[in-house]
Amino acid sequence: MTNVNTTRQNIGFSPIPDKDILDFEHIYGAHHYERLGLVVRKTEGIWLHTADGKKYLDCLAAYSAANQGHHHPAIVGALVDALQGGYASVISNVVYTDALGMFLKKLATLVPQMGPRFGDNGNKVLPKNGGVESVETAIKMARYYGYKVKDIPDGKQEIIVFQNNFHGRMITIVSFSTSPKYREGFGPLTPGFVSVPYGDIEAVKGAINDNTCGILVEPGQGEGGMYYPPEGFLGGLRDLSDQHDLFLLFDEIQVGLGRTGKMFCFEHENVIPDGIILGKAISGGLVPLSAFVTNTKMMDLAFQPGRDGSTFGGYPLACIAANAALDVLINDKLIENSARIGEYLKKKIDAIASRSTHIKEVRGRGLFIGIEVKNGNAMDYCRKLLDLGLLCNDSHGHTIRISPPLVLDEEGADYIAERLEKVLVD
Ligand SMILES: Cc1ncc(COP(=O)(O)O)c(C=O)c1O
After folding, report:
1. CA-CA distance, 131 to 328, in Å (whole number)?
2. Are 363 and 292 members of one domain?
3. Whole-structure pTM over 0.85, yes or no?
4. pLDDT of the residue at 85
5. Angle formed by the axes of helices 316-331 and 334-355, to 10°?
6. Residue 148 and residue 253 in one domain
């Protein structure tokens, strides 16, 4: 095997020049992402490094997958041990592994009791790989609940979702996206979803009928423009779910696990759902893993052998990463740091907004901050920020997304604010 990491120029996985890497992607890859022209060779903490020795502060954190910072030593150490120790590979799901067992216990007990109306039964976890898979699992749960408990005829179940939602890219999920670009030409789409404006409790009330089995909501919309619903909205959804016996599902794939300054975003409003969907940072940004967590009684109702499954879902390497990644969030006090540094950074951004003619609104909690620009084209600003050593992108076209790893400190926040000032204040 050739060792390619021997010289300063050869930083990263290979000595192949950046230009060739761009060509490889253009020629051989699906063009499903609009990329910024940066080839990242190495990552560490909040930093992304390129072959020419430049570094960029990562203000995206892979859409919350790198909450613990890139290559956190405790997570890397756990993975290296697992690989070298011979207990990392995927094993047929007909046997038990200690890695999975320990992960299930850790996550089930970390999440507050889901669906307390079903009893104080504890939680159960169903692991998958990408976030979208766990959203589908949650949808299966709500539909089965409607069928089995509410006697809705199978095939007639309806779930209420929200405009500008983002829950992933598979067929069922894009079927209820309100972005035509996500759906066009991919039909036949999956029926059984009713979409209403985000934050509008009256519209939710109006959408409930005898076939409604559940509500699926992001407690903060990441891709939809970095919005939180108005205060009281999540509580209103809880009340409606109790009154009409609906399965209330929170998708916390992007806003959970410390991103907004609480372990779970729903803790800002103290509203407990019946099930929660987690992904991204659950395994520290090094291997994919996602999970659906619900009340034990409900999980046992919907998922018996043969009813669900995934070859890699919950395989040892991912579980070992997740065990370490969840510990890091707690041991390194990253939730507290997200709240504290988020507030520090938000104050600086608010001050910039007071001097800027470009900013329409600043929104955010913790290290989940959106800067909506007046011209509606956030990427104009993100390109300039990239030239200054800051990687950002847009959310919903109009908003600059500020969501760095939660290990950010004051110095990193100052670095971000200085660059925002240069680009947003004339
Ligand atoms: C709220 C939310 N749900 C679901 C997903 C889909 O997750 P994945 O891309 O891992 O399938 C995302 C991804 O950004 C997300 O932000």
Report:
1. 21
2. no
3. yes
4. 96
5. 70
6. yes
